[in-house]
């Protein structure tokens, strides 16, 4: 059975925790001995990983390319505009052909249906590098970051301020699997998808994570261990940007909200940030911000993910 990573739900709780442990080990090794031999430096030798982007990207594109290289594989960055996909070749046919050349495909796209279609017709692992529904690779890095700063996930609480879309969805599922409670504070009309929330709540029954949705961004922050935000207008929603500012303004991650969180609380943002909109300079540049480490952790967690999906007998 070919394994895919289209949603955080594609990992079990044990797989997810083991992936985070391996990401921590990879990070420790790269940090303490940057020039030394990489423990998994040949794990993807002879493997090519296509990185296909239908939306812009800095972190995902770079971290996947570096991850594949540092694991000894060959990354192949592509945009749909340069493929026949951009001229109407179907995703199914693209999947059939790509499976003959490459060993995995990482896709950033719009609808989740495009990822499902690709996975249905591919014989190689497909990884969701962000869709309108989920950003599961981001959630892996978020968990690694929160765990490092709060000493654990179970029994801790993360507040997400803003749009209840892709990043919030992946955090809800990731929290459900690991016992991290997640509060999504979103404006009316921008709450998380009901089906995603229901599925996440189902998963949370075995871990005790409390998953809540509120329209009050201030009370949501009270006592939180981590406060997280994301852009108000996601990629593909640029035309709505002006209208969204008014609705989202009260949800800005600013000093007053961070002060309501626990003393040890950290501030997160998946980036790119629109400074002065969803997050203030004071918070993102302040002492409780862990956003740069969070971005770095994309590299370590995606290496661990690629090892799980692709490497033979990596121990
Ligand atoms: N956080 C994130 O996915 O960033 P990019 O859009 O730059 O890849
Ligand atoms: N919600 C944002 C995340 C960017 C990493 C978007 O989809 O554009």
Structure write-up:
- This protein has 315 residues and is an alpha/beta fold.
- The chain has two domains: 8-134 and 298-312, Rossmann fold, CATH 3.40.50.1370; 138-294, Aspartate/ornithine carbamoyltransferase (Rossmann fold, 3-Layer(aba) Sandwich).
- Helix content is 43%, strand content 13%.
- It has helices at 13-32, 59-70, 91-101, 112-121, 136-150, 166-178, 194-204, 217-220, 241-248, 255-260, 281-284, 291-310; strands spanning 48-53, 74-79, 104-108, 126-128, 157-161, 181-185, 211-214, 226-229, 266-269.
- The strands form two sheets. A five-stranded parallel sheet has the order 7-6-5-8-9. A four-stranded parallel sheet has the order 2-1-3-4, sandwiched between helices.
- Helix 2 (59-70) crosses helix 12, helix 5 crosses helix 12 (291-310) and helix 6 (166-178) runs parallel beside helix 7.
- The longest helix has 20 residues, at 13-32.
- It is globular, with a radius of gyration of 19 Å.
- Residues 57-60, 130, 138, 270-272 line the site of phosphoric acid mono(formamide)ester (CP).
- Residues 130, 135, 165-167, 230-231, 234-235, 270 line the site of norvaline (NVA).
- One of its GO terms (biological process) is L-arginine biosynthetic process via ornithine.
- It is found in: Cytoplasm.
- Keywords: Cytoplasm, Transferase.
């Amino acid at each position: 059975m070919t394994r895919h990573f289209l949603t955080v739900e594609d990992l079990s709780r044990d797989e997810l925790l083991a992936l985070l442990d391996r990401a921590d080990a990879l990070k420790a090794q790269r940090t303490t001995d940057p020039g030394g031999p990489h423990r998994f430096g040949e794990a993807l030798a002879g493997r090519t990983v296509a990185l296909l982007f239908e939306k812009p990207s800095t972190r995902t594109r770079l971290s996947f390319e570096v991850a594949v290289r540092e694991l000894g594989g060959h990354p192949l960055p592509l945009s749909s505009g340069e493929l026949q996909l951009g001229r109407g070749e179907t995703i199914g046919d693209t999947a059939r052909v790509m499976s003959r050349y490459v060993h995995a495909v990482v896709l950033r796209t719009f609808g989740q249906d495009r990822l499902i279609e690709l996975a249905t017709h591919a014989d190689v692992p497909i990884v969701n590098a962000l869709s309108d529904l989920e950003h599961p690779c981001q959630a892996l890095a978020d968990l690694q970051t929160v765990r490092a700063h709060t000493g654990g996930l179970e029994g801790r609480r993360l507040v997400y301020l803003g749009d209840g879309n892709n990043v919030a969805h992946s955090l809800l599922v990731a929290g459900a699997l690991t016992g991290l409670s997640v509060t999504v504070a979103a404006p009316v009309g921008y709450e998380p998808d009901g089906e995603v929330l229901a599925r996440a709540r189902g998963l949370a029954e075995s871990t005790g994570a409390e998953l809540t949705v509120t329209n009050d961004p201030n009370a949501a922050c009270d006592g939180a261990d981590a406060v997280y935000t994301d852009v108000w207008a996601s990629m593909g929603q640029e035309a709505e940007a002006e209208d969204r500012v008014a609705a989202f303004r009260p949800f800005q991650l600013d000093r007053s909200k961070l002060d309501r969180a626990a003393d040890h609380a950290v501030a997160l943002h998946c980036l790119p940030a629109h400074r002065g909109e969803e997050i203030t300079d004071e918070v993102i540049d302040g002492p409780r911000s862990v956003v740069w480490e969070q971005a770095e952790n994309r590299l370590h967690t995606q290496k661990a993910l690629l090892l799980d999906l692709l490497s033979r007998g990596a121990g």
